[in-house]
Specification:
The chain is α+β, with helices and mostly antiparallel strands. It folds into two domains: 138 residues, D-amino Acid Aminotransferase, Chain A, domain 1 (2-Layer Sandwich), CATH 3.30.470; 95 residues, no CATH class. Helices cover 38% and strands 18% of the residues. The chain has eight helices and nine strands. The protein has a three-stranded antiparallel sheet with strand order 1-6-7, with helices on one face.
Length: 233
């Protein structure tokens, strides 16, 4: 499930041009009319193979071509002159296509409801004059956990801003941290203060990056030495 979409993507011109070319070639090889969503994966090392196009040494993987409006494109309702839904209908019935460009310089879409039976997924779109302004407007993220107690933690791992979990009944909101875990309470306080303090926000981002690197080092050691050596150094 797609949690976060940033438009436009913060990638280099070369990557943007390459992704556009691949998407065009993929859709051109298919029949039909309407919106086609092309999903690409950008690899960390830049060494990958397009499975469909059989090209080597490229920087992304072609994962999916969906012949329909896509959940990653819901932000077009607010951020484009013509939403993906309007564009799809106009193409299918043979009407002239609408303007295929953004009417706002930056937009971020957050999915706020998980997938459940007989329930539509919800999302919120924030638009602004720049990506920095959009992220500033996000200041505090409210994540409904529902039955998934890990959902808020997943979002919190992706942003230095505060993420508030709400597992309690109406009228009893709480910011959830682990029992006997003062470190998490302190980290959450830093995130709250970081809303208005750029230095604290930068330090929190660095802490997240350091934590990520520490996890990767542990994973590498576990894979190299095995679990017995890892538990008994």
């Amino acid at each position: 499930m797609c949690h976060i979409v940033k438009a436009l993507a913060n990638v280099s011109w070369d990557i943007w041009k390459h992704a556009t070319d691949v998407a065009y070639k993929a859709v051109s090889s298919l029949e039909g009319a309407g919106v086609f969503a092309v999903e690409l994966f950008l690899t960390g090392d830049g060494q990958a193979v397009f499975l469909l196009l059989s090209l080597r040494l490229l920087k992304m993987l072609l994962n999916e071509v969906a012949p329909r409006p896509h959940n990653s494109g819901h932000h077009t309702i607010e951020s484009w002159y013509t939403s993906q839904f309007e564009q799809h209908l106009q193409a299918v019935v043979g009407l002239p296509l609408g303007e295929p460009s953004m009417k706002t310089p930056a937009a971020v879409m957050y999915t706020i409801l998980e997938m459940r039976k007989q329930q539509k997924m919800g999302h919120v779109t924030i638009v602004g004059p720049s990506m920095g302004d959009v992220e500033e407007r996000l200041k505090s993220i409210l994540k409904e956990e529902g039955s998934d107690c890990q959902a808020a933690g997943m979002v919190a791992a992706l942003t230095p801003l505060p993420v508030i979990g709400v597992p309690m009944p109406r009228g009893v909101p709480v910011a959830t941290v682990a029992i006997n875990n003062a470190a998490n309470a302190g980290l959450f306080a830093v995130r709250m203060m970081g809303i208005h303090d750029a230095d604290l926000l930068a330090r929190m981002s660095q802490y997240q990056e350091d934590t990520r690197n520490d996890v990767l080092r542990k994973a590498e050691k576990l894979e190299k030495d095995g679990w017995e050596s890892y538990l008994n150094p």
